[in-house]
Design brief:
Shape: globular
Number of strands: 11
CATH class of the largest domain: Alpha Beta
Helix content: 25-40%
CATH superfamily of the largest domain: Vaccinia Virus protein VP39
Structural class: alpha/beta
Strand content: 15-25%
Radius of gyration: 20 Å
Distance between the termini: 45 Å
CATH topology of the largest domain: Rossmann fold
Number of helices: 11
Number of domains: 2
CATH architecture of the largest domain: 3-Layer(aba) Sandwich
């Protein structure tokens, strides 16, 4: 659909940490409500067209994928929990739009770096290094962790310090740790976030950007890239704010990406697909006419829609307490 973010490579340890079947992967709570049940078949067909077979990677699957929402933190998660393997990201890397050079969250994070001039910056899941190339202007030590060997080679060709690993491999803490479009791919984001925060200096910052479930993206029901095995969780503003509550952090910034024309077109098209029409030939003709009129009217309604609808991504910047208890000894 052309509306998905890049990223998301993570280490095997980060993506495979097990959880009880009914536990929320962010807060660990056991109280949740069912949002919807999705048939597995069309999800499998979508990925098979990209060369990734669900049954080969995940074994026997039920007929439905159930989406649930945690009552305590608002996180949306799924049963069964399907985590995409490295093969999935190898397939996506071949899609031209997947690793994009420009992202809204990059610009916002660069403004933050420019104002603080941190010494040590670490990006988790840095992809092909689009953000790190720019971050070098504002920091003396810029490093990235990445899971895709192909992406690592691309980064190194650009002179970037990017390695296959996780924060457990760090030998010194960082001033700012950034993760763009990563945590929604993890099986156990709560545990992973805890590990990241331990490796940030007291008074340092954590930057997290994820797809905005409160925005238009959360209403595009047929976006298979926003479902497992690609996205293991969906994040509302409540969930991003819960990170601060759980880990004793201060939110210094909460930002929403403006609605893009491309995403607005996808959103309205999704609504039209769900609009009932008459059956038979007349129904098909009516739908074709409706879609044609829709394409012509999109530019007229987009500007007004942007005033009330949020775009693809939202981002939170957290500050760790200056005298944070615990943490890792280096």
């Amino acid at each position: 659909m052309g509306i998905e973010e890049p990223q998301a490579a993570m280490s095997a340890e980060e993506s495979q940490a097990g959880l009880p079947a009914d536990a929320c992967p962010l807060c660990g709570g056991h109280k949740s409500t069912e949002i919807r049940a999705l048939p597995i078949l069309p999800i499998g067909q979508y990925w098979e067209a990209l060369g990734y077979r669900l049954e080969q990677e995940h074994g026997n699957l039920p007929n439905e994928l159930v989406e649930r929402r945690c009552i305590q933190c608002g996180l949306h998660f799924f049963h069964p929990c399907l985590i995409g393997s490295s093969k999935l990201y190898e397939r996506l890397a071949a899609v031209p739009w997947y690793y994009g050079a420009y992202k809204w969250e990059f610009d916002e994070a660069l403004k933050f770096l420019a104002a603080r001039q941190p010494v040590r910056v670490l990006e988790i899941g840095c992809g092909q290094g689009a953000f790190l190339k720019q971050a070098r202007r504002f920091s003396t030590e810029v490093k990235g962790f990445e899971y895709s060997k192909q992406a690592i080679e691309t980064c190194r060709e650009s002179g970037l310090n990017v390695v296959l690993g996780s924060v457990e491999d760090l030998d010194e803490p960082v001033d700012i740790l950034l993760a763009f479009q990563v945590v929604e791919h993890l099986e156990n984001p709560g545990k992973v976030l805890e590990g990241w925060i331990e490796h940030i200096v007291p008074g340092g910052h954590l930057v997290v950007a994820v797809p905005n479930q409160d925005g238009v993206l959360g209403q595009v029901h047929d976006n298979y890239l926003n479902l497992p095995p690609h996205h293991a969780s969906l994040w509302e503003e409540q969930s991003l704010r819960f990170i601060a509550e759980r880990f004793n952090l201060e939110i210094t910034h909460y930002l929403r990406e403006p609605l893009s024309l491309e995403l607005y077109a996808t959103y309205t098209q999704s609504l039209l697909k769900r609009t009932p029409v008459r059956s038979g030939m007349m129904g098909k003709i009516s739908r074709l006419l409706l879609m044609h009129v829709h394409r012509g009217l999109i530019p007229y309604f987009y500007e007004t829609a942007g005033e009330r609808l949020a775009g693809h991504t939202h981002m939170a910047i957290y500050r760790k307490a200056a005298h944070s208890p615990g943490g890792r000894n280096y």
